[in-house]
Backbone:
């Protein structure tokens, strides 16, 4: 009787792919979910929890994200320096005006694992407020670059 063993991807075995996502008019949470799945590699057949099997993700037009409901005025972000009395609070509207790329990065960060692997995955995320990005060389060499995961049913 022959036993078949389960295949687990080793580091460096999966090819690195780059995805370009246009955030124009996309909803913040749904886009962040799609990005988190791509960074973790959960949409690949070679997904393994213990190794990086995900893709590099380049997001353009982050300044044109859509936020539903009253979140622009009600959602708060917090930052603390560690010193007494230095808790800073920011509304989503203020953060979208000054750093729209940071809003998307924080949303994706909350959906990734809270460990060393999650920090490595977040380093593979590149977010730009405008339509231009400096990663043309990586993307043009790979035919897997997609425009919008939501439009493709993903």
Residues:
């Amino acid at each position: 009787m022959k036993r078949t063993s389960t295949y687990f991807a080793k580091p460096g075995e999966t090819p690195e792919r780059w995805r370009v996502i246009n955030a124009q008019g996309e909803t913040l949470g749904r886009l962040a979910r799609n990005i988190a799945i791509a960074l973790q590699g959960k949409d690949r057949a070679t997904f393994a929890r213990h190794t990086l099997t995900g893709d590099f993700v380049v997001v353009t037009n982050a300044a044109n994200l859509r936020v539903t409901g009253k979140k622009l005025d009600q959602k708060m972000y917090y930052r603390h320096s560690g010193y007494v009395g230095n808790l800073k609070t920011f509304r989503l509207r203020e953060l979208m005006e000054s750093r729209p790329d940071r809003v998307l990065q924080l949303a994706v960060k909350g959906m990734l694992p809270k460990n060393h692997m999650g920090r490595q995955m977040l380093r593979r995320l590149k977010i730009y407020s405008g339509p231009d990005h400096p990663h043309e060389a990586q993307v043009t060499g790979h035919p897997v670059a997609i425009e919008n995961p939501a439009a493709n049913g993903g």
User: Anything to note?
Assistant: The two ends are 40 Å apart (CA to CA). The first helix runs from residue 28 to 40.
